[in-house]
Structures are given as C-alpha cells and as structure tokens.
Amino acid sequence: MAAREKKLVGINIVEGKGLGKAYFVGRAVRQDSVVSISRQDIGNHIMLFNEIREKAKSDYRAYVKSFDGTSAFDTSILNVYEHILDDPAFIGQVVETISIKLFDLETSIRLVSSDFIKRFSAAGTSYFKERSSDMVEICEKLISYIHKDGDRKKSFIEPTVLVVLRAFTPSDILRYDKEKIKGVVSVHGGKTSHAAILARSYSIPVVSGIHNISEHIRPGDQLYVDADKATVYIRPAGSVISRFHEAEKKTVDLGKTLRKKWNRPVYTKDGIQIEVMANISLPEDVAQANNNGADGIGLVRTEYLLSNKKEFPSENTQVEFYRAILKGVGKKECVIRMMDIGGDKIPEFFEMPVEYNPFMGWRAIRILLERRDLFETQLRAIMVAGEKHNYKVMFPMVTTLMEWLEAKKIVKSVSKKLGLKIPECGVLFEVPLAILEMETFMKEIEFASIGTNDLLQYLSAADRNNPKVNYLYTPIEPAFLKILKTAIDVCKDNGKSISICGEMAGNPIYTVLLVGLGLKRFSVIPKNIPIIKEIISNISFMEAAESASHLPAIESSAGISRWIGRVNKRMAGEILEKIPLFE
Ligand code: PEP
Ligand code: MG
C-alpha cells in the first residue's frame, strides 16, 4: 500500500507552488547507476577515498575554528561528522565494496551510506535517527569532492524538488538545469538571501526551516511545495495535486495576458512615466526580461559569472559574457554592477580570509579596490563589450566618498588606456553611512540606486539570511521609509536618476507605496514586471503621493501595513486580488 500523505510546515522563503520528485542535493543517497571498475583501479579508488576523507575532516575542523566560543551554533555536531569519517565500520565497508564488488568509489560510498541510513532510520531512539541525517551530510560532502566537475550543469529528466540539508545557497540552483527545478525544501535560508533572490527570479518556490528532513523525506518521494502556506506535502493526495494544476493554469493564463499587454512603457493615470527594469544574473536571463516587457536592465549581478568556475574568468570570457547580455538588451539601458563578491557569494576558487561576519567584511568594492587586477580586468571587459551600447557601471557596497573617488580614478585611468569614453558611473546605496551622506555624493555620481536588501540588514542589524530575526527585517519600518523618501528627494533635487533594485521594489504589495514616495524607476525580478506595470497603470501619481504624505505620522510597521492594505485596496484592489500575494 502506498504511504500516506504527510505535511510539514516551515517558513515561506520564496512564494509559489511546485510539484516534483525529491532530490537530495549532492545526490548522496540517490542510486542513479552502478559503476564497475577493473582490478587494477582498486588501489586508486581506495587512495582517493582516504584523500577525500582527510579533506572533509580538515574542512570541518576549519569550520569549527571559524566559530568563536560565543556562537549559538553547536559545533559538537561537526565532531560527530569527524567520528563518522573515521568510523572503522564505515571505512571497512566502503573499502570492501570497492575491492570485492569492484564498484567505483562513488557507487561504494552511496551503497554503504544508504545501508547506514536505513539502519539508523529504523533504530528506535532519536539519537540514532539523527545520525541518519549526519550520514547524508557526510555522503554528500564526500561525493561533492569526487565531482570536481565545476562548469557542467546537471539536468533532471522529471520535475524535481531539491532537498537541501543545510542553508540553501545560490550554487544549489546554478549547478542544475533550472527548468526542471520545481521547488526547494531546506533547513535554513532567509527571504532576501542571494539563493532566495535567484530562486524567486526563476519562479522556484522555497520553504525552509524544515528540520530532520531526512527522517521524513526519502529520495524520490513526490513533494508538493506550497510556499504561500509555508507547507511541504510529502506524497500528496490526488485532490491536492489536481487543485495545484488548476491554480497553476490560472496563474499561467493571467501571466500570459499581462505579458502581452505590457511589452511597452507604462504611465500612471495622470501621465507620469515609471520605468520598470529587470534585475538579471546571467545572459540567458535577458530573454526572460525582454519577454516580460522590461524597460531595460537595472541591475546585472555580474558575480554570477563566477559560479561553478574553477578559476577567475579571463578578460575575453568576460567580454563575451557582457556582449551576450548587451546584445540581448539592444538599445535599452543596461546597468552593469561590478562584482559583489563576498557575503554569501564566494566563488569556489576564491581565497577568502576566515571572517566572523562576512556580510560586514571583505566584500564588493572593498575587494575590488584591493584587488586592482580583478577590478581593472572586469572594467576593461565591460567597456570593450559596451563600446556601442547604452550601458552604465554601478558599484556595490560603497561606504565612503573616499572609496568612491578612488574607484572613479581607476575608471578614468582604464578609459584613458583603452582610448574609450568614460562610462556613466553610479553608486548602489546599500550601506547606511553612504545613504545618510547621499547629498555629498551627488556631485560625484551620475546616478543612484538603492539596494534595500543590504541596506535593511545593516540598518536593522538583522541578517538577511536568518529567518530567526526576520521579524525585524521589514522594509516598512517607519524609519526605513523615511530614509528611502529622503534619498528619492535628494536625487530629484539634484537632477539625478534613482532606482530601487532590492527585492522590495519587486514585491507588488509595495508598488503603490513606492510610487507614492516618488520613485520613478524600479528594477525587479523579470516575472513581476507585467503585474507591477499593470498596478502602475491603475494609479495616479498625485493621488499616491498625497496618500504617502500621511506616512510620517505613522509610528509602527503594523500601522504602515494597515496603510498599505487600505491604499492598495483603494487604488489597485482589483488587480491585486487576482494574484497570490506574498509578504
Ligand atoms: C541589495 O542589496 O538590495 C542589492 C540589490 O544587492 P544584492 O541583493 O545583490 O546584495
Ligand atoms: Mg547588496
């Protein structure tokens, strides 16, 4: 008899619904095929096994060291991993499988781990049940060392839900052919983590905060991820599946209608043009931006060029990357952001110091100013590719004017050496010190954008990746809105364009609010462009501004939330009712 449906509730990270077969990232316990070896190869496979066990142990040790004594993270779990890696039974069985059954190392690790996992899961005590997820982690880790196959994307035959037994990261998505990924279930992850941003832009729903995953989910189980309800259904009932297909059809139909309608600029009812541009990460995203009617590209997150790479891409590779993007964008404007390396985006090959607080550490422009070689190579590549295009260059994480002036000097000298025109340069305001000093930047920059994702985490002292403090990470805190309003006004008074490219701008709930604050340029995930344009076309700029003039009197985010509910209903009620909203 088929096992019954089971429901797990976690935290909604990326809105949406999806259905697919459970796939444990790292393929730890999935048995795709069995690979045999010849007798002469036995020694090599055993040697490789010893090497990767040592590597895993030293990586775990380094990880333990990176936590100081005050961390809430219980590092004893990492010691358990080390014990498993040294466990004579585990080692003995893998070696025996290689040398007697003549299976390759990966097959042997999978077979033995599956066997351990089954035995642990069947044990009565919770202690042993927990060891089963430790075993999955170990197996996943060892197999990832065997596969140093970097660039190659893996694809799936059927719709798949990724199951991640740790915090979910951007490479969890980029490593696979994303067409088939219908959802992600993970242990940790915040709503504006870079992994969540990627998932959102590819319409992949994510639920995190699900603990003891491997106790409940087995590889290959059918999973229905309803992120709007923060729920994961394991082996969903037929009625749940048919409701999903109905809802999916409605969303697809609405999307089609709006995409067709909004392949053109949008104006408010009183005739003010509002640009709705796209945020992208890869050349292949440009087509999605165009299909959704983007008025240009407001943010290219160029650091994704480094994903799944074994070394820093050459200047020529970079030129090709920017050319492919700019060609797709055509005559429209394209804002290319210099690489924002660091925080939760660390390329595998990049030597980073151990940092206690990576988001406040060596990141973005701080790295670029120290590593002039990387800075100049990227800039040259952008300028060469952009020679005949309408592009601008944006710098992430600028904190002080001094930093900015230093960066500009480098831009000037690179332009001079290349004999090319100096590109228009702007600042991504995402560090409190910089946005509070925006007026001073005005005479030195050509344009501004606000990175609400980081700005909010630095202002609220709430990590954007940490669901535990997510209740503090809200863009509708009165003080945050005051800062946004002042920034928009400063740019207006100085005749500089300003956009918002953080996730806040892409959430249709906030469209009326942001237009009310005077924002005329949005940069958002491509799939939300049509709905945001539809809302804009239904509101009056003046009326939104008049309503927003009452905001300073509201003292709490709860009050602002009620205000948003009221104005959205009044100005965009009909259209907002048709889409599943997500906050
Ligand atoms: C931001 O911080 O809002 C932003 C746009 O940059 P990222 O999300 O890439 O850090
Ligand atoms: Mg940022």
What brief labels describe this structure?
binds phosphoenolpyruvate, Enzyme I, Chain A, domain 2, 583 residues, single chain, Glucose Oxidase, domain 1, 9-stranded mixed beta sheet, TIM Barrel, 8-stranded mixed beta sheet, alpha/beta, binds magnesium ion, 46% helix
Task: Please summarize what this structure is.
This protein is α/β, with parallel strands linked by helices. The chain has helices spanning about 40-65, 75-85, 90-100, 105-120, 125-145, 170-175, 195-200, 215, 240-260, 285-290, 315-330, 365-370, 370-385, 400-420, 430-435, 440, 450-460, 480-495, 505, 510-515, 530-535, 540-550, 555-580, and strands at about 5-10, 10-15, 15-25, 160-165, 180-190, 205-210, 220-225, 230-235, 265, 275-280, 295-300, 335, 390-395, 425-430, 445-450, 495-500, 520-525. Strands 9, 10, 11, 12, 13, 14, 15, 16 and 17 form a nine-stranded mixed β-sheet that branches. Strands 1-8-7-3-4-5-6-2 form an eight-stranded mixed β-sheet.
Describe this structure in words.
The chain has helices spanning 42-65, 76-86, 88-99, 105-122, 126-146, 170-174, 194-201, 213-216, 238-261, 285-291, 315-329, 365-370, 372-386, 401-418, 432-436, 438-441, 452-460, 478-493, 503-506, 511-516, 529-537, 541-548, 557-578, and strands at 6-9, 11-14, 17-24, 160-167, 181-188, 206-208, 222-226, 231-234, 266-267, 273-280, 296-301, 333-337, 391-395, 424-429, 447-450, 497-500, 521-524. The protein folds into 3 domains: 6-32 and 158-236, Glucose Oxidase, domain 1; 38-145, Enzyme I, Chain A, domain 2, CATH 1.10.274; 279-554, TIM Barrel (Alpha-Beta Barrel). The protein contains 23 helices and 17 strands. Strands 9, 10, 11, 12, 13, 14, 15, 16 and 17 form a 9-stranded mixed β-sheet that branches. It has an 8-stranded mixed β-sheet with strand order 1-8-7-3-4-5-6-2. It is of the alpha/beta class and 583 residues long. Helix 3 (88-99) crosses helix 4 (105-122). Strand 9 (266-267) and strand 10 form a beta hairpin. Helix content is 46%, strand content 15%. The chain starts with 5 loop residues before the first strand and ends in a 5-residue tail after the last helix. Magnesium ion binds next to helix 17.
